[in-house]
Fold:
Amino acid sequence: MSTDRAIGDRATGVIHDIGYQRYAGPRLGRGYATRSLYLHGLRTAFGLGRSAKAKIFPWAVVGIVAMVATVVTAVRAQAGRPVMTYVEFPGAMGFLIILFCAAVAPELVSRDLRGGVLPLYFSRPLRRTDYALAKLAALTSAVWLMLAGPLLLMFTGGAFSVHGPKAVWNEFLDFLPGLAQSAIYAIVYSALSLLVASLAGRRAVAAAVIVAVFVVTTPIVGVLYGTGGSAVRQLAFLASPSTVIQGAGVWLFDLKGIDIGPYGPVYGLAVVALFAACVLLLLTRYRRVAR
Structure:
């Protein structure tokens, strides 16, 4: 009796329309998703759109770099000559760049790994390579902007310290290599930091390993330089990412400070190879993650 009644209830059931509809608007596609991810990553790098706590460290680093540029500009105005060239400035800020990357790279990728949201990102239309390259572009842009802003401040002060259009033009020509050297630092440091961060789900662990990669390799340079012959000393700077970039700067922009002898092209190729290897490993990492 009860069974017959249940069958009768199901037979007379009603489907209610509660208003769900299929999306019929424009589909912005893969390019829009990649650009949005890049812009979101760039905002995340500086803590924009997040809590005040998230803004403290990145903006503290930016403030210190800007303060150094202000002091350099003021000393130049008083002394009448530059105390630090534009090309030397990124190298002088090397440790601050490392700290910035160690804080930002885990925010960009480690949080997504730990939160398990990558399968949502990798649903259509965004591809795995799009995700990795967008994050890399965001970190690279953030590091470059952190250096380019103070360099622009130094250039503005330098332009007002010289006399005549020709002198200002020469100042501008000196300024351009500084931007290029900043771009090299941004590209290499960002690629290496993001690769390390993509291997760890915990932000604290990722940050510590990023700093270690840069710091631990520096004493190796000292050991090779102190124990090797002339050729070994000139090639010893290949053992650390920081000194590799300095060596490339010596070759490309006549940067002073280290002796690389005739091995300038080797340092240039080493920078390219380091960046290419980091990007290749990063893309390989995201082809296999969250499957």
In short: The mean pLDDT is 88.
